[in-house]
Each structure stands twice: as C-alpha cells, then as structure tokens.
Hints:
- This protein is mainly alpha-helical.
- The protein has 3 helices and 2 strands.
Amino acid sequence: MRLFLVFLLAGCAVVGKWDKPGAGKQEFYTDDNLCQAQAVSSHRGAVDWAEYESCMIAKGWRKRS
C-alpha cells in the first residue's frame, strides 16, 4: 500500500511538467507509469529520477521550464 501511495504522489508531482506535441493525458499517464516502473525495477525499489527523466525524453516528452 505504501509503495502505491509513493507512485501516486510521484505521479502527481510530475503531471503538468512535461510536454509532448499532440499527446493527451492518457499517453502521458501510460508513458509516466512505464518510465516509473523501469526506473524502480533497475534501482532496487527506489525511483531513479535521472533514469525516469531519460525514459520520458526517449518517449518524446520534454520537461517544461
């Protein structure tokens, strides 16, 4: 349950900070979930935010300033 809340809160923290031309919220949530899962699985349970950001950028997302 705690891990779920961490993901939920982490997801809320990044919503609105990413842009991808032509993408909707559903695409954001799909890519966000995939990138978080990837960043966690390769880092023993903790989110590697640098890896998360790299994943999102690889999927065509750009961070807002």
